[in-house]
Structure formats: C-alpha cells, structure tokens
C-alpha cells in the first residue's frame, strides 16, 4: 500500500464483509504530539478471541479467516515501522474496533493520501450501510454522517450522478480546508 | 464551499425527474475488484475515475460497484463490465486513464477496448 488512506479503505472493507450496518472512522493528525492515528469501529458479527489473534499473523491465516487475509498484517507492519502499532478488540455479535497509531514525522510513515477518494468509494458503494467519518488535523476538524446526508436526500441515491459529484467536491473541499 | 443546502436543492431537482438511477437489470454494471490485492495495485483511483466520469456524462443506466478478490491478483486492478444480453468483458491492469477510454469507447460507443482485456494480456 502506498498511502495510509488505502490501508483505511482496506480495513473498512473488513467491516463491510463482517456485515456491519454502522461503521465509524475517526482519523486524527496531531503534529504537536507527533502522531497520526485512526480507528475503525463497526457493529459487524465480530470475532472470537482466537480469530482476533490469528488475523494479525499472516502465516496463521487459514481458509476460515481468508476474508481478512493480508490487510491487517500489512497495516500492522506499516504502523510498527513508524514506532507505532495496532490494537484490535472484538466481540462476537457486538462488533470490532481496530486502531492504528503512526509516528507522524517518522521517515517511514506513508503519506495519508487521498482520503476524499477513499470515502467517496466507500459511501457510494455501500448505500445500505451507514458511515460516520471524523477527520481532525490539529485544531481543525470536520465530520460526515451518511445518515444525515440520506435524510436530506430523501431516497435519492448517492450514485445519482449529481449527488456523486456533489459528494466528491464536498469531501475534497473539506479535506483541503483541514490543511489551509 | 459545498454545503448541505446544495444537497437539498439536488434532491428537489431529482425528485422532479421521473427516472432515478437504480440498479435495474437492463443497465450496464461496471464492477471493480477492491480486495487487498486490488487496492494495493491501484483499484481506488480506477473506481473513482469510472464513478466521476459516468456521473459527469450523466450515464444514468450505468452503475459502478465493487467486488472482492476476483482470483487473478497479478492482473489487478481488474474491472468487469456487464451489459444486458452480452458477454461479460474483463479488463485487466487498469489505470484511471484506461478507465476514461473504456467509458468513452465501450460504455458510450459500444466498442470493447480489446487491448485492455484479459484476452489480450494473457
């Protein structure tokens, strides 16, 4: 993966595969504390303690855990390479929380990359799932809750061309604003 | 700056239109492989290019969606195009630039871009 936003996209796909109906992504860039961290919280089917342990190790991933595959080991490596790490907690029938911490100024930290593109893909491809996205960069912050957007849209889908283009611009502008 | 008020305006405008885009069987489906292998190979910008270009062209009979690993990770990003009553077309090693050409030549004009298909790359 070349960008952290690609790891985030990949990790969120796990929540979707796990049958979540609500997925929350919180992303924080704190340059004073020199960390970048994110967490993905879902209400999917969750994992047993054995499985939660197994998915972190690529070599014990057997066919039963194949839906998770290499995504989590790749994220773990990327985080550990910057002096950070990942944490995973899960409960069957409740959901899963995975969080990752990166050393912000570490030379090996991948760039965050295009979060607007990641979120646009997630939102428009899974309209039956609700997403909450919060992104903070130092003292600037914005958030999107697809439940609010859907309420305004009253049944007009995200895949309607006009809505897709609006969403794309909305995300791009808000991301840019964080660094202005 | 885009605001939620714009979204409200879009809704009003759309509800006056008779045809909303929907996943109907008569439409064209563009499916992008978005498993770990696809994402690592660059599937996200490819999917984005399909979404934005079909939206800009207002191709309301076209839906762009994603799927898991298609099973040929070395050929990712892989894109499958399903059209009613036609054979599925599989494009491999896609890029956003190739995606724009597929929209223009295949989706709009009906000519498969043979050089990007799996048949031409295997």
Précis, in short:
The complex is a heterodimer of chains A (180) and B (122). Chain A has helices at 4-17, 49-54, 71-80, 115-125, 146-153, 161-178, and strands at 22-30, 35-42, 85-91, 95-103, 130-137, 140-145. Chain A is an alpha+beta fold.
Structure, explained:
The complex is a heterodimer of chains A (180) and B (122). Chain A is an alpha+beta fold and 180 residues long. Chain A has one domain (4-178): Heat Shock Protein 90 (2-Layer Sandwich). In chain A, 37% of the residues lie in helices and 26% in strands. Chain A has 6 helices and 6 strands, in the order αββααββαββαα. Chain A has helices at residues 4-17, 49-54, 71-80, 115-125, 146-153, 161-178, and strands at 22-30, 35-42, 85-91, 95-103, 130-137, 140-145. In chain A, strands 3-4-2-1-5-6 form a 6-stranded mixed sheet. In chain A, α1 (4-17) runs antiparallel to α3. The longest helix of chain A is centred in the last third of the chain and has 18 residues, at 161-178. Chain B has a single domain, classed as 3-Layer(aba) Sandwich (Glutaredoxin), CATH 3.40.30. In chain B, α3 (43-56) crosses α4 (96-108). Chain B is α+β, with helices and mostly antiparallel strands. Classes of the chains: A alpha+beta (180), B alpha+beta (122). The A-B interface holds A 1, 6, 9-10, 13, 17, 69-71, 74, 114, 117-118, 120-121, 124-125, 148-149, 152-157, 159-166, 168-170, 173, 177 and B 1-2, 4, 6-8, 10-11, 13-15, 20-22, 34-36, 39-40, 44-45, 47-48, 51-52, 54-56, 58-60, 63-66, 68.
List its traits.
heterodimer, A: 180 residues, alpha+beta, Heat Shock Protein 90, 6 helices, 37% helix, B: 122 residues, Glutaredoxin, four-stranded mixed β-sheet, 41% helix
């Amino acid at each position: 993966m070349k960008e952290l936003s690609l790891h985030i996209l990949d990790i969120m796909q796990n929540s979707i595969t796990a049958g979540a109906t609500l997925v929350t992504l919180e992303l924080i860039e704190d340059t004073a504390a020199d960390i970048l961290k994110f967490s993905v919280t879902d209400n999917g089917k969750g994992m047993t303690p054995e499985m939660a342990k197994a998915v972190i190790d690529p070599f014990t991933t057997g066919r039963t855990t194949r839906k998770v595959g290499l995504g989590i080991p790749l994220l773990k490596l990327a985080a550990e390479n910057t002096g950070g790490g990942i944490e995973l907690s899960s409960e069957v029938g409740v959901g899963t929380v995975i969080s990752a911490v990166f050393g912000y100024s570490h030379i090996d930290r991948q760039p965050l990359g295009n979060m607007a593109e990641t979120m646009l893909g997630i939102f428009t491809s899974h309209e039956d799932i609700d997403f909450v996205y919060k992104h903070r960069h130092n003292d600037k912050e914005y958030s999107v809750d697809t439940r609010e957007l859907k309420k305004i849209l009253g049944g007009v889908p995200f895949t309607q061309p006009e809505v897709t283009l609006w969403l794309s611009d909305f995300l791009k502008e808000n991301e840019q604003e964080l660094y202005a | 700056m885009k605001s939620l008020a714009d979204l409200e305006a879009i809704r009003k405008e759309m509800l006056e239109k008779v045809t909303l885009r929907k996943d109907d069987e008569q439409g064209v489906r563009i499916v992008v492989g978005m498993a770990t292998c696809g994402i690592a190979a660059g599937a996200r910008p490819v999917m984005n290019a399909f979404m934005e270009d079909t939206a800009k062209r207002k191709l309301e009979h076209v839906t762009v969606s994603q799927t898991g690993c298609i099973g040929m990770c070395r050929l990712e990003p892989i894109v499958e195009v399903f059209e009613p009553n036609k054979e599925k077309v599989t494009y491999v090693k896609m890029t956003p630039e190739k995606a724009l050409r597929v929209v223009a030549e295949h989706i709009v004009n009906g000519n498969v871009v043979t050089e990007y298909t799996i048949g031409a790359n295997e």
